[in-house]
């Protein structure tokens, strides 16, 4: 299992097609892991590009961390990972919370980014987004796992439920993720969003409750284009080929 | 990484797969399970996607360039991935060896 040390913590990284000249880094969402890309989106992009996937702290097979879930810390981690992997400039894609990290990255380190792809990034000020954090309970978890996670179609067994439950418990009650996220609530309304000049692709589900966030970003980012894909917040799982092809076309456009 | 060149029988591949699964999910869970070639990863073995990533990495590390396991998985849709069982992987590895 490929592990690199970033800011003193072990990070699980997967790289495909290392020989390619241009690189794409993909960031997964909260409570998810790099597998959201590993099985279908990454292999397709890897037909043309060097693709880098990594697990965020406390997610997947990366080391746990009690603090540092704000976008500044998350982008510090990504920059350090790029340094470690000697990636000077990359195309960047992020899904959900990973989309927020990608946006912040383009704001803070534009010189390290070629093009930017944002999939289903929620408005952190949205009640529904914050509600996920506020309304957490075992009952809610079961509902959430059944309806909103990567494993949409799979009824979870006991071991998986326990595993996921432990992760949620850890993230919610032991780490600073709740307070860190609350501090980001004005992110979409901040003037820094409008400083993004990169070619930006926004991919949102036609039935997603985040679609309005996509429209808001489309209005705020000068060089953005929004594509609505049939599906809801889970479009990378529901439509992996559509997403992969949209990303490939976008990154290849000159 | 060790790359093997000798051809394995389906029984040998099955036992290797069981070893990888044990390494990924832990002996305590494997002991409670009756792993057969019909066992599906998500339903019977209750492996989640990141565990299947670990399992895939073990296959790739063991067989090296002999097989394109990720490429093979990427040709499947979600339903096929969910229904993926050990027997299908054994057949795929056997095909690649022939």
Automatic annotation (TrEMBL), chain A:
Domain (AB hydrolase-1): residue spans on this chain: 24-148
InterPro entries: AB_hydrolase_1 (IPR000073), AB_hydrolase_fold (IPR029058), AB_hydrolase_sf (IPR050266)
Any GO CC annotation of this UniProt entry: membrane
Gene Ontology molecular-function annotations: hydrolase activity
Assigned keywords, A-Z: Hydrolase
Keyword ATP-binding appears in the UniProt entry: no
Pfam family, one: Abhydrolase_1
Record flagged with keyword Disulfide bond: no
Protein name per its UniProtKB record: Alpha/beta hydrolase
Organism: Pedobacter alluvionis
Automatic annotation (TrEMBL), chain B:
Occurrences of domain Carrier (ranges): 11-97
Record-linked Gene3D superfamilies: ACP-like
Stored InterPro entries: ACP-like_sf (IPR036736), PP-bd_ACP (IPR009081)
Designated name of the protein: Acyl carrier protein
Organism expressing this protein natively: Pedobacter alluvionis
